[in-house]
Amino acid sequence: MLILRRKKNESILIGDNIRITVVESASDGVRLAIDAPKQISILREELSIAEQENKNASSPHLTAITGLQDSLKHITFKKNKPTEAAADKPDEAADKAAEDAKDKPAETEAKAEIKADANSNKENSKS
Predict the structure, then answer these.
(1) Distance, CA of 119 to CA of 127 (rounded, Å)
(2) Predicted local distance difference test score (pLDDT) of residue 74
(3) In angstroms, how far is CA 48 from the centroid of its own chain?
(4) Does residue 72 register a pLDDT over 60?
(5) Could you say which DSSP state residue 38 is in?
(6) Is the Cα dihedral 79, 81, 83, 84 positive or negative?
(7) Nearest alpha-carbon partner for 12 in 1, 22, 27, 26
(8) Residue 91: pLDDT band by 50, 70, 90 thresholds?
(9) Which of 13, 84, 93, 100 has its CA 20 to 30 A from that of 27?
(10) How far is it, in rounded angstroms, from Cα 20 to Cα 36?
C-alpha cells in the first residue's frame, strides 16, 4: 500500500489515464475528483461490499436447492403412490373410481340448479 499526502488541488496519477485530485479537505472528510475512462468502474468501498453481500444473499446455496428438490420428490411420490389395497385389488380400485365418477354428474346438476335458483331470485328482485 502506498500512502501519500496531498493538499487541495494536488493530484495523483495512476497509470496514464487515471487522475485523482483533492478538491476539498475538511475535518469530517476529503472530497476527491476522479478522472478516469468510462470503462473503468469507480465505486465507494461500502457500496461494493453491500453489492457483494446482496449477490451472496440472493444466490441460494446448492445444498438448500438439493434439499428442496428431495422434499418435493418425496411429497409428489406420496401423492401419486397407489395405496396397497388398490395395488392388491386393481378391479376394486377401478370400481371405486367408476362409482366416484357417477356421483360427480349429480353434484354438478345440483350446483347448476342452485345457480339457476340464485339467478332467478336476482331477476325477480330487479323487477
Answers:
(1) 13
(2) 74
(3) 23
(4) yes
(5) T
(6) negative
(7) 22
(8) low
(9) 13
(10) 9
pLDDT at 118: 61
Please say whether the beta carbons of 21 and 10 come within 8 A.
Answer: yes
Amino acid at position 55, single letter: K
3-state SS string for 72-115: HHHHHHHHHCCCHHHHHCHHHHHHHHHHHHHHHHHHHHHHHHHH
The total number of residues written for the chain in this structure? 127
Q: Are strands 11-14 and 18-26 parallel, antiparallel or unpaired?
A: antiparallel
**Residue 72: partners with Cβ closer than 8 Å, 6 or more residues away:** none
- DSSP percent split of the chain into helix, strand, coil, nearest 5: 60, 15, 25
